[in-house]
## 1
Amino acid sequence: MFQPEYEAMQPADLEVLQLERLNTVLSRVYEHVPTYRAKFDEAGVAPRIRGLDELSSLPFTVKDDLRAAYPYGMFAVPLHDIVRVHSSSGTTGQITVVGYTRGDIERWGDMMARTIACAGGTADDIVQVAYGYGLFTGGLGAHYGAERLGCTTIPISGGNTKRQVQVMKDFGTTILACTPSYAVLLAESAAEMGVDVRELPLRAGIFGAEPWSDNMRKQIEALMGITAIDIYGLSEVLGPGVASECLHQEGLHVNEDHFIVEIIDPQTLQPVPDGQRGEVVFTTLTKEGIPVVRYRTRDISRIVPGVCTCGRTFRRMERVSGRTDDMLIIRGVNVFPSQIEQVLAGIPGVAPHYQVVLSKRGSMDYVEVHVEVGPDVPFDEIKTLERLRTRVASEIASALAVNIDVKLVEPKSIQRSEGKAKRVLDLRNEGSA
Amino acid sequence: MVKQLTVFLENSPGRLAALTRAIGDAGINMRALMVADTAEFGVVRIICDDPAFAQSVLEAAGYGVTVTDVIAVVVPDRPGGLADVLEVLGAADINVEYAYCFVRPSGRGAIDVFRVEEPARAAAVLSDASMRVLTQEEVRLTA
């Protein structure tokens, strides 16, 4: 544990700390951020609460608030005090900008150091940071954490997969930080280069920035011979380091001394009890540059009930199972693409890479899932392939409760992303097919 | 017995051309090629002079390749020639999954390729019935 004085706090002490920090944040944003002053005034609530149970009376912050304030409108300190900016990728609209004070960078480094320590990391580790460096928070976020923990840090950034494999082998990397889909690509490339990652010193990976499944975790762990740790973060709240699994891999400990996590029903916007799935909402408690109050992440998760045996008392959120806005509504049924990945990982003979293509047949939604034939299928006989296709189609259909067609495609023909994987192609608004 | 390569291909224009060009560019000479197709995908079965090399070339080019043992039998060029061969297999209770044939440039008889459950036993019963079962080396030399 990197900071046991916080990570193993008694819940009662944590509550006192959270309330005190929250009231400081509320008065600061009311004072310095016009968006919040307007929100609080409009809702008729004071920027001060008496107990954490009053949190749900406060207004939400959404992505559009940050877009409307582009670039610096939500900053709570003068630019003089901002030492760094990052931005979101802008894949779902106009980019948003977040700013960090020197203190923010310090605390972020602490939180990412906790994350690497959660994966069993120490100052003796060699960390290969294969998240992209730049405006994306992943690279620099992991980098500062690795340095804070005292690890030997390899700032290789994303891309150039062959060189990644070479460096991993030659430099003796023990911990890999990248997106899970890039980890699969790295393992595949290593195999093509005749490098067996399982023989290398690599022993853990901290993977995040995109949704993945437990089956994909098992696949990565088997391919690389490592423990794969799920990490969570988003630039609007911090970047990587908001929450991380420990070696027990039973949910991600939220850094509750720095954030209050809530789960709400995305329709009613009311908090749901622990254990129930809903949209994750964060309030920052220590961010100076751009604090957010009740930020709606659009990520779907739940609080894992109970206390972890690792000694950390921070509550755990379950691995994010989808996005409220990735959620596909197909013939009226709510579908998360991650469910498809879970099914595929359980079927021998297909790769976990897939693409969902949505179109219209007349007025009906038509779903085709493209699935790669794995290298181990004895596909000489057509009947083997037809059986495989039928099995994939029926298992996906029963998991999603929606009928779909499956198209088998050539190995490695589905685009591998070096960042966030593009799983869905929605052609429903482009005229009938 | 003969090594047959099977390549999985998407059923779309240009895919077969690209595959055969990759084989040609590597200097590999095909003896036979058979395409089995469905609406969406096809499998291409290839007999060539150097299957191990061809497999490595195709895999390096990103194709999915499997290798299957098949038997190649010389079939006399007369009515009933193929039926004679199949009757031997049938009598030995050997089921044929699929078959295709290619003609030797010398023009003396055709070569039929059979995919069966037990290729080694099939080759043995055919040899016992005085049929000529080709080896990989003989296939290489048929050009």
## 2
Amino acid sequence: MFDFRFYEIWRESDFIDRLINGVWISVELSTAGGVFGLIMGLALAAAQSSVSPSVLRYASISYIEGIRNTPFIVQLFFVTFGLPLIFNYRWPFEASALLAIVLNFSAYFAEVLRAGIESVHRGQIEAAQSLCLTRRQTFFDIVLPQAFANVWPSLTSQFVFLFLTTGLISEIGVEDLTWSGRYIADRNFRDFEVFIVLTLLYVLIVFGYKAIFSLVQRYAFRWRVAR
Amino acid sequence: MTEDTNTGSAVVVEGMSKFFGDFQALYDIDLTVDYGERVVICGPSGSGKSTLIRCLNQLESHQQGTVVVNGTELSENTKNIEDVRRNIGMVFQSFNLFPHLSVLDNCALAQRRMLKKPKAAARETAMKYLEQVKIPEQRDKFPGQLSGGQQQRVAIARALCLEPQIMLFDEPTSALDPEMVNEVLDTMIGLAETGMTMICVTHEMGFARQVADRIIFMDSGRIVEMNEPEIFFTNPQHERTKTFLGQIL
């Protein structure tokens, strides 16, 4: 039987600090990426509505397909090493990681939100029209709240999945949770124990995110529970 | 009701035809409805009844002929279609209440957005009409918590909140359980008594007989017969009308 030696992690306060810092960096970047990704995803989804100009529509579709059909690691490298060459300007790797996360998340969110927008019954829009709401008011007051409610569970699991892919940012040296694990394992050679701890930490973070999502659901979409 | 700007008829439709692609849904419709008049439109399904009244507030656009509502000619290019729709309330078969808003907010939203009323004033007006449809105690519930009949009455109140001059009803009781039909019809009868101009697509012949000034019978996109209720029911002029009435009465 394999001899588990978890104390090889606990005994170094440096290792503990790295793990805490890793959790923080992962949560920070994913949360910011989630929020900005959602906003950008919303814009991408709205750009695909039938009333928007076809240039915008095709730009949005191309972007979404481009992101969803290429590996995140390639996008990450492009943003980190390609863009600075194009713009001839350097910025911190954390900023590159965040940008890559936002660009990546937004495409996935856009698809979920588009499904949500399309799921809103046509009669809702007709009722809004007959009550003289403008297109913009109809979108923000009527369509969007229902769209979010309809796809909230999908959005939750999509976000959790995307969060779990962010471990790849350790490849460019961003000191996230996965990077911290590598750092420790490279020093104490207890890879198995380290990755068990990493797994637990990722699971805990996911539980935290899910709790927040279901809190939003319970408060913002209580009209759905009510029926 | 102030109608100084609207001399003449509420609705004037002349030679109107409507196509869905190659399919012609309405043929050469002529129809005039005066202010305060109550018109009931009936006919078999697919005869174009709903399409006709949806053309009156531009939920559908027509391809030939003219539609004039409240003195404004409607076309796809009509500017300020909101100003026209503001004077036309519409009630749908499937209610189409906004499920994420409370009953009160369903009624207040359009007033706040369209009329730019402050929240309190909008809610006050909303309550007035919720009382008119006898449902004020449900104001804080969501539509999903109400019965079909209650939802439809809220939908009527919601439409009334913009204080329209014309009310369109598109089969308002067809989606209701039988025992809820009467509460909605009673609300509509009450509305008719206030002198509202009403155009109702319905198969409720009892309601038609009691309330309508005129009954229109449509078939295959055409107005087949148009008469006052007494004549329409006792002495229909067309074979098609007789068959129809024979089947539903």
